[in-house]
Amino acid sequence: MKFILTIDTEGDNQWDHGIGISVENIRYVPRFQDLCNKYKIKPTYLVTSEICNDEFSKEIFSEYAKSEIAEIGTHLHSWTTPPFLDMEGYRYNDDIHAFASEIPEELMSEKLKTLTGQIEKSFDVRPTSFRSGRYGFNENVARILTDLSYTVDSSVTPYTSWTTHKGLPGGSGGSDFIDKTPVPYNYSFNGHTLLEIPITILPTRFPLNFSKSFADHYYRNVKGSYFLRALRKLRLTHQPLWLRPHNFMTPELFGEIYHEAKKNNLPFLVMMFHSSELMAGCSIYRKDQDAIEKLYELLESFFMILKKENIESVTLSNAALNYQA
Length: 325
Hints:
The chain has 10 helices and 11 strands. By secondary structure, it is of the alpha/beta class. Strands 1, 2, 3, 4, 5, 6, 7, 10 and 11 form a 9-stranded mixed β-sheet that branches. Strands 8-9 form a two-stranded antiparallel sheet.
């Protein structure tokens, strides 16, 4: 088992739509990178278009990539990546943040070409790893990525559906990943493949971790079933459990998801969170400096688990390069 740490590296507070975008949170990345260096963790910074235009970001991420202490990959926010159209949901950071999986394929191809070029120019690296903003992903996006020589995606969120989260007016909403598990798999197009390494999201409590069919039924029906909602309240809070440093997470919960992943023989542990969570008040998840300090304590507790278990850290692209099913 290998550990992959992915950071959605983006503008400040992406939950505020329709306003200008700043990137002050990137000034707080070096402290985080120092912690990673201490435990020999190599993060994958998946960067958005606005990050490519920031001079401080260019400086630090270029150095991280050159020193091979981190990877620079791609994080598409369709609402901040050119080209734009003068239509609702297609303008720069308007009130509607469209899922990539909803956007016409030709326009999505242009956006991905633009963002790939921006990253290459700003950081002197050709990105080969990807995550879609709002986890908007489907085969069309995968096909475009293979055309651009990407090798790995990590947009899939197992046991989770985003279909009730709206994007474009009259659109289909987000993707449905309830039937997925954290096991990697390939997309193949005309002899080219893209490895999908899902984020590590797992049910860790009985009966969800005992029966995949029951878990699928539960996640599809829990909102409409009194019995399933009662079961959730009784013993299934925070299920499925994400490998991410939520403010409710504890070292014990991290240990729980690690042991569940080990039991399932997963080849990778994939953690994610947002760069904005490193700055007090920049994210809905970390509202003050005390919350930031608790984040660092939580991350260090998990890194200590990895050290104890002799689990090596790899970047997304290195994981894909060396993976054999």
